[in-house]
Design goal:
Blueprint: E1 2-5, H1 11-19, E2 24-28, H2 39-45, E3 54-59, H3 64-73, E4 78-81, H4 87-91, E5 97-103, E6 120-125, E7 152-154, H5 163-168, E8 173-176, E9 181-183, E10 186-187, H6 189-204
Parallel strand pairs: 1-2, 1-8, 2-3, 3-4, 4-5, 5-6, 6-7, 7-8
Antiparallel strand pairs: 9-10
Protein name: N-(5'-phosphoribosyl)anthranilate isomerase
GO molecular function: phosphoribosylanthranilate isomerase activity
Family: Belongs to the TrpF family.
Length: 205
Amino acid sequence: MKIKICGISNTEILQYACEMGADFTGFIMADKSPRKISKDFLASLKNFDFQKTTPVFVFVNPTIDEVMKIVTSIPKSILQFHGDESNEFCKQFNQPFWKAIRVENSKSLEQIHDFSSAEALLLETHSIDSYGGTGKVFDWSLLKKIELDKQFILAGGINLQNLSEAISLKPWCIDLNSGVESSLALKDINLIDQAITMFKDGQLN
C-alpha cells in the first residue's frame, strides 16, 4: 500500500513529505482550486530533489498545451486527470496517468472500464459543484466488489479519524488532502507526521 499527500503548494511541506517517505506528492493545476500552485512554485519543482517520492500533477479538463508543459519540464511525473477527460485524451501524452472516478453510487463504478490505459484509478467523492477536493467521504461499502489492491487509489475526506478504516480496505494507495490541513489549503506538518506514522503502523498490523 502507498500513500499520497495531495494539494501541496509550498516547498517546506513538500520537503517534509518527501523526508517522511510519502510515495507520491500531488500538485493541483486546476484554476478553480484553492490549492492551485503558483507559477513560482511550479518553476521550483524542476530542480527539486524528490528523493524516492514521485510527483503527481492534477488537472481538470486541461488543454493539451497545459499538460505538455509538465511532461516537458518534469518528465518523471504522473499525470492525474480529474475532469471529464476520455481515455484517448489521457493516454496521448505517453506518460503514466491516473484517472479520477467520482463515486456517487454503484453505477458510478462502471466508469472503471472506460480507462483501460490508466496506471491507476482514483476513487473520489462525487459532487455536483466541483470535480474534487470536497473533504467528504463517499459510501465505502460500494467498494466491496472491487479488488482495491489492484491499482485503486482511495480519496475523498480521509483524515486521522478514518485513516485506520481506509487502511483496512487495503487499497493500492491512500490519498490525503484536506485531512492533513489546519485550514483550507494550508497543509499542517504535524497532521502529515501523524498521518504517515499511522499509515506505516497500519501497514505492520
